[in-house]
Amino acid sequence: MKPTDFSKHLTDFLTLYLPGERGVSYNTVCAYKDTFLLFLQFMKEMNAVDADKLTLEQITRKKIIAFLDWIQKERNNSISTRNARLAAIHSFFRYLQYRNPVNLHEWQQILSIPAKKAGKPSMNYISLEGIKLLLQQPDQTIPKGKRDLALLSLMYDSGARVQEIIDLIPASINLNKPYTINLWGKGNKGRTVPLMDSQIQLLRNYMEHNGLLEAYASKYPLFYNSRREKLSRMGITVILKKYADKARSINQELMPDVVTPHTIRHSKAMHLLQSGVNLVYIRDFLGHTSISTTEIYARADSKLKREALEKAYSSTIPKSDEEVPMWKKDMDLLEWLKGFK
Q: Which residue from 195, 215, 264, 276 puts its CA 20 to 30 A from 76's CA?
């Protein structure tokens, strides 16, 4: 069977251009690959075109928009996921502009498809009391419970992204003082994060119980499933949901309705901020490229906003030693400050 021009260019894009010329990470290549797997599924189900017969000529701006609507409506993908799929498609067609300019006008029509605007969701995080309740749920008398506690506590203490946790190996952990963990984030950028004594003790016990302290196991997955394969994103999400549901049944107020691995990362960042840690240090801890990304936590913390307003009032309004601050007398203003978000 003769390969199509689409299959030829897509293969070169994923295997040569992205990792070779662009130097993107393995995870980014996988994300782009998943986008085109979905697109092939869409073309077969909705346009009756098999993967081995799909050509570049059949791909138009109209079909790409229909594909994006399909993943959002039929597969219930979020707007952010839709936009991520569009970003992968845009990257491919920018590549095609120089590799196959015959249909340059159509490629530019596809590149003109805008990302869909979405309202910014409120910051979803768990209070310190909620994190403590969550970590009390794994059953420490069984192996899976030991693994799950080590996993969830490390997710929180390190503030790691879920993929960073998935990619951990025993060699990533420095079990000698000063205790640290080496994480590899977006764009293959590495960072070293300090760990506390209690976290290291928990990890050491888990690793010793599972033979992960042996030299031959240094490259094994740190957290794995029953087949000794590293956990997937879905696997970690299912584990977290299990214990979040248990914690919610004990105290509903301490556990948000939706808890994802990124919720744990948000929670650690918020707790660092509320403890007075400088945003610059939080940026480096989380592996953010820009401080502007980290500032979302400061904008989200209404408690800090109220405290800042209270300090501003107390420092600018003259009063005697016995005088009650003006804003404390004004009950309407006080209630507004309490509800300030």
A: 264
Question: Active-site residue 262, yes or no?
Answer: yes
Q: What is the pLDDT of residues 181-203, one digit of tens each?
A: 999 877 677 888 888 889 999 99
Provide the token pair at 63. Answer: 């079909």
288 is catalytic: yes
161 is an active site residue: yes
Q: If phi over 0 gives left and psi between -120 and 50 gives alpha, with beta otherwise, what is residue 76?
A: left
**Catalytic annotation, pick one of 161, 248, 266, 268:** 161
Buried (b) or exposed (e) across 69-107, using 16+ Cβ within 10 A?
A: ebbbeeeebeeeebbbbbebbbbbbebbeeebeebeebb
Task: Give yes or no for a contact between 280 and 269, defined as CB atoms under 8 angstroms apart.
Answer: no
**Active-site residue identified among 63, 262, 306, 328:** 262
45: left (phi over 0), alpha (psi -120 to 50) or beta: alpha
Q: For residue 209, indicate whether it is catalytic.
A: no
The rounded distance, in Å, linking the Cα atoms of 46 and 134 is 43
What is the rounded distance in angstroms from the CA atom of residue 108 to the CA atom of residue 118? Answer: 24
Q: What is the pLDDT of residues 205-241, one digit of tens each?
A: 999 999 999 999 999 999 999 889 999 989 999 999 9
pTM for this structure? 0.65
Beta carbons of 39 and 45 less than 8 angstroms apart: no
Structure tokens, 185: 């984030």
Q: Which candidate in 33, 63, 186, 230 is catalytic?
A: 186
- Which one is catalytic: 265, 266, 268, 283? 265
- Clarify whether 177 is annotated catalytic: no
